[in-house]
Amino acid sequence: MFSLETTSTTTADNIITDRMNLHHYLLREMHGYLVHPSIPTDNPNLRVADVGTGTGIWLTDLARQLPSTVSLDGLDISSEAAPPKEWLPKNMTLRRFDLMSEVPEDLTGVYDIVHIRLFAFVLKNDHMKTAMDNLLKLLKPGNYIQWSEPDILSWRVRTTTPDKKTEALTNLMTISQPRDERLKPTWIARLTDDFREHGLSSIDADFKDPSLEIIMPLHECNLLIHEFLARKAQSTEWAEWIKKILPEVLRETREGAAWDFTRVVVVGQKPL
Ligand SMILES: C[S@@+](CC[C@H](N)C(=O)[O-])C[C@H]1O[C@@H](n2cnc3c(N)ncnc32)[C@H](O)[C@@H]1O
Description:
Blueprint: H1 14-31, E1 47-51, H2 57-63, E2 71-76, E3 92-96, E4 111-117, H3 128-138, E5 139-159, H4 167-176, H5 191-197, E6 201-208, H6 212-233, H7 237-254, E7 257-269
Parallel strand pairs: 1-2, 1-4, 2-3, 4-5
Antiparallel strand pairs: 5-7, 6-7
Helix pairs in contact: 1-6, 4-7, 6-7
């Protein structure tokens, strides 16, 4: 699941696609925008790329806010999570694209906005240089990148009252994290520095903690990852452990405890 290749939904799995779509609407509600207000969107010929587009939900939602003259391109290593192309907005396309490989010539320097979101479980620290270089290659000089992630290292358990049980929720996270570097990505806290080191200007970082009423739906989105892992891993010792602990995790959740993360949207402008 957590290798760069297989994080893509190699077989369409409706838990993963449901999660992506629900997560999108919760994040939109939380941040209050799709495109950060500092990024201009008034050009009727705007070209927008969404890298690792998944179900394409960010672009299909954006299509409703922008004129039909803009071009919206969903780029992803896999099309498994994508809806049928016949049901996409007319000005939206999907294309196979690997962020870790050479950027094709016809995509170099063509976009006004490059958006990337929820790569926390995809990229390791040592992927970051190539990822950033390639994202910036897609951008026209003078234009904008927007990158949005949960800061996994900000992880904590929130409870409705201090007496709530949190042991299973804490164990599931703390025992899972050392098993894979991608469950403890340190590059997210460095995104702003990374933007600066790559020569971007007009950098803005919008850090947000979810409001109380949104903590639980976001938490339930995250629980789906563990349910998915347990289902896919079948009979390994690890999968068995997750399956055993999940009912207690769900009990603690129902009684008023949840994982909580700070989320960040970082934007920057490519130099002219
Ligand atoms: C967690 S999903 C995020 C989907 C979408 N960005 C969103 O916010 O709803 C990660 C996506 O990244 C894609 N992906 C993984 N590795 C990739 C790569 N090397 N190049 C491009 N896309 C990749 C996966 O196929 C998957 O669709």
